[in-house]
């Protein structure tokens, strides 16, 4: 589901100026485009629409410890979630983590992309590879790496205590801080790529023009470069937010059983409590929240930048 | 004292010599045009003066001070970029205001100056438009207004009028000339339009392959081209290959069997004779024989293509009632010795 979310966000990228020419008068219907998109549509239907519909139906069933899944249609699971503080806390935590990760990714990724663009030819490719490298490694192994670093006897705590900065180990494992750090590491390449793409569209002469008009380099950055890459940062943020809010592996490993987020909650309901309908309801709510937030942000961006980048 | 001095300015891109030992002095208040074929290094030269490209060698001084030591944002030059380089996220008015903001001009003055500048380029009603929503010519005028509004003492214009229609271009030319005259702005103008260069400039610099071929007043460059390249590049000209000889009477050049006296002392060997089409006449006596291959009426003048033994020759005659030869007629053409220029070398070597 996460991969599809990110692709939706990509295709909604407001800065991608793919202004299609107005379609010709349809004198004779051209079937080629439909036929060509048929395999993708079939895949989409089988792998996304059908499971989603089944999840939705499942979420309406009820569940009893002794009776199992009951084939009845009711909204009980949803009212349970909406009224229970336990679920509130988890959804709020998911939201908080996703927002923090998005902010951190923007703060780290945008300057990173800018610095990368300013680099000279051989170093640029090399550093880009280093930045994007994490994408080539499985999320699980990367997160386990963080777990090794984070542990109370892990490298970070040992080092910090070794130089006497802290007396007792900092709790990273099973805390939101740990999850946020690890997720940021996992997701920052998406932000770099997105900002990188909008930097590529920047005309270097425009920066020169600002310089020639007397702007200091920092002013050029703030007044000329930044506003032009804002759409890139925003579309990167949408991708990162969607991936962070629905992330599973990282919160599962770093957060463990104690620190649940929406995705791990759904997983636990399915596999531990065996309350499939409740798990399905959690998944559906997560999806709805994600879609609402992302579409809302996208609208906002599009309205704001319609005049400028179209 | 010269205002701007370019001293042996050189720029290499890898092995490619984009600008080769370019030296030029510009007086204060002068309007100088850089002319030359595409890719001859005009933009590169301007970019080095502006500080966006580091020269591979040479010096630039402005008003006696070393310009290369200053950062681009401290040079205070006005620049119109070939690609306009407008800020896409700012409206036309915000674009024009940017330079004033950087100079901390108070808000009220700024608004007035921006309005005046946009009015000047005929875009008074377009202040709220974003560049993407403007035509090429409109964008170009915003770029011009943005450079003019800061009242720089040196203005670098890289084909600033290339996208304007004939009428608008003429208005802007007059405006540039007026600013240069009244404010005393020094301008370096890159243009592909020879008429524009001729009409506006105090001097023209004709460049070829990164080198300066000639620096002269427009009429001078036209009448006394320093090389076959200049003769050919500025307006139409006829290049005739001939042979230079030294004999008792001085230097002569043989073209298609006719000998023309040459005032300058040139070494014997191959030579090129250049003569402008409007200086060539049909003569009865001695001259270069040929026949009329084509003739075209151009409103106020006739254009003739004459095939001679020394190669094709273009002749322009006024449409003033004189009897002119018809197509395929045998003719003899000639010109006054003072209207031709002779250079050693071959035409191909230009
Ligand atoms: N960044 C660069 N790297 C390599 N070569 C370059 C670069 N910029 C320009 N050149 C080369 O330097 C030469 C001069 O370019 P320049 O842009 O100065 O030409 P120009 O005289 O302005 O041409 P035009 O009239 O078409 O604008 C060209 O041959 C061009 O290919
Ligand atoms: Mg150029």
From TrEMBL, chain A:
Record's keyword annotation contains Transmembrane: yes
Chief place of localization: membrane
Keywords, in A-Z order: Cell membrane, Membrane, Transmembrane, Transmembrane helix, Transport
Ranges where the record places region Disordered: 1-26
Transmembrane intervals: 34-58, 90-110, 146-167, 179-197, 233-254, 274-297
Polar residues bias (residue ranges): 1-10
Localization in the cell: Cell membrane
Topology of this chain in the membrane: Multi-pass membrane protein
Record-annotated ABC transmembrane type-1 domain positions: 91-297
Source taxon at top rank: Bacteria
Gene3D superfamilies on file: MetI-like
Similarity comment: family membership: Belongs to the binding-protein-dependent transport system permease family. CysTW subfamily.
Annotated protein name in UniProt: Spermidine/putrescine transport system permease protein
Organism: Azospirillum rugosum
UniProtKB/TrEMBL annotation, chain B:
Keywords, alphabetical: ATP-binding, Nucleotide-binding, Transport
Domain ABC transporter intervals: 4-234
One GO molecular-function entry: ATP binding
InterPro entries, per the entry: AAA+_ATPase, ABC_SmlMolc_Importer, ABC_transporter-like_ATP-bd, ABC_transporter-like_CS, Mo/tungstate-bd_C_term_dom, P-loop_NTPase, Transp-assoc_OB_typ2
Pfam families registered for this protein in UniProt: ABC_tran, TOBE_2
Gene3D superfamilies: 2.40.50.100, P-loop containing nucleotide triphosphate hydrolases
Record carries keyword Ion transport: no
Protein name according to UniProt: Spermidine/putrescine transport system ATP-binding protein
Species for this entry: Azospirillum rugosum
């Amino acid at each position: 589901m996460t991969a599809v979310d990110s692709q939706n966000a990509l295709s909604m990228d407001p800065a991608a100026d793919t202004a299609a020419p107005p379609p010709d008068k349809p004198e004779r219907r051209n079937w080629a485009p439909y036929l060509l998109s048929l395999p993708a549509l079939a895949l989409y239907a089988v792998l996304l629409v059908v499971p989603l519909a089944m999840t939705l139906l499942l979420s309406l069933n009820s569940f009893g410890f002794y009776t199992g899944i009951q084939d009845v249609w009711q909204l009980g699971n949803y009212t349970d979630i909406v009224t229970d503080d336990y679920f509130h806390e988890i959804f709020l935590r998911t939201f908080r983590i996703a927002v923090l990760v998005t902010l951190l990714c923007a703060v780290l990724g945008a300057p990173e992309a800018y610095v990368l663009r300013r680099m000279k030819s051989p170093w640029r490719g090399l550093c880009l590879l280093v930045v994007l490298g994490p994408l080539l490694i499985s999320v699980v192994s990367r997160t386990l790496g963080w777990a090794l670093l984070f542990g109370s006897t892990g490298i970070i705590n040992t080092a910090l205590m070794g130089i006497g900065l802290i007396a007792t180990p900092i709790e990273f494992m099973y805390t939101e801080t740990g999850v946020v750090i690890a997720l940021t590491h996992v997701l920052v390449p998406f932000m770099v790529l997105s900002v990188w793409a909008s930097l590529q569209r920047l005309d270097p002469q425009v920066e020169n023009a600002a310089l020639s008009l007397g702007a200091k380099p920092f002013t050029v950055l703030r007044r000329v470069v930044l506003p032009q890459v804002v759409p890139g940062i925003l579309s990167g943020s949408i991708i990162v937010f969607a991936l962070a809010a629905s992330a599973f592996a990282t919160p599962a490993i770093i957060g463990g059983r104690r620190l649940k987020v929406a995705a791990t909650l759904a997983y636990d309901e399915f596999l531990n409590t065996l309350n499939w309908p409740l798990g399905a309801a959690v998944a559906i709510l997560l999806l709805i929240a994600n879609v609402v937030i992302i579409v809302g942000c996208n609208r906002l961006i599009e309205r704001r930048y319609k005049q400028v980048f179209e | 004292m010269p205002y701007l001095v370019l001293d042996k300015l050189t720029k290499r891109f890898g092995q490619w010599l984009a600008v080769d030992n370019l030296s030029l002095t510009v007086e204060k208040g002068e309007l100088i045009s850089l002319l030359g074929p595409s890719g001859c290094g005009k933009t590169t030269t301007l970019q080095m003066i502006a500080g966006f490209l580091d020269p591979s060698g040479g010096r630039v001084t402005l008003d006696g001070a070393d310009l290369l030591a200053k950062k681009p944002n401290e040079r205070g030059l006005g620049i119109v970029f070939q690609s306009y380089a407008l800020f896409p996220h700012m409206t036309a008015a915000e674009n024009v205001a940017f330079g004033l903001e950087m100079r901390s001009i108070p808000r009220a003055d700024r608004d007035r100056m921006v309005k005046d500048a946009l009015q000047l380029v005929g875009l008074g009603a377009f202040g709220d438009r974003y560049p993407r929503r403007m035509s090429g010519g409109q964008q170009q005028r915003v770029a011009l207004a943005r450079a003019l509004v800061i009242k720089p003492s040196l203005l670098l214009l890289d084909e600033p009028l290339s996208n304007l229609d004939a009428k608008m271009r003429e208005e802007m030319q007059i405006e540039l000339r007026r600013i240069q005259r009244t404010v005393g702005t020094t301008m370096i103008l890159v243009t592909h339009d020879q008429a524009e260069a001729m009409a506006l400039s105090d001097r023209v610099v004709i460049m070829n392959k990164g080198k300066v071929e000639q620096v002269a007043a427009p009429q001078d460059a036209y009448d006394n081209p320093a090389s076959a390249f200049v003769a050919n590049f500025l307006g139409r000209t006829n290049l005739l290959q001939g042979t230079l000889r030294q004999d008792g009477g001085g230097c002569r050049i043989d073209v298609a069997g006719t000998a023309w006296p040459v005032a300058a002392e040139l070494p014997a060997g191959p030579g090129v004779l250049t003569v402008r089409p409007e200086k060539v006449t049909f003569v009865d006596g001695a001259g270069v024989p040929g026949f009329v291959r084509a003739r075209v009426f151009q409103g106020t003048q006739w254009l003739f293509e004459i095939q001679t033994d020394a190669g094709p020759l273009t002749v322009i005659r006024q449409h003033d009632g004189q009897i002119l030869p018809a197509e395929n007629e045998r003719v003899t053409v000639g010109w006054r010795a003072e209207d031709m220029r002779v250079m050693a070398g071959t035409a191909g070597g230009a």
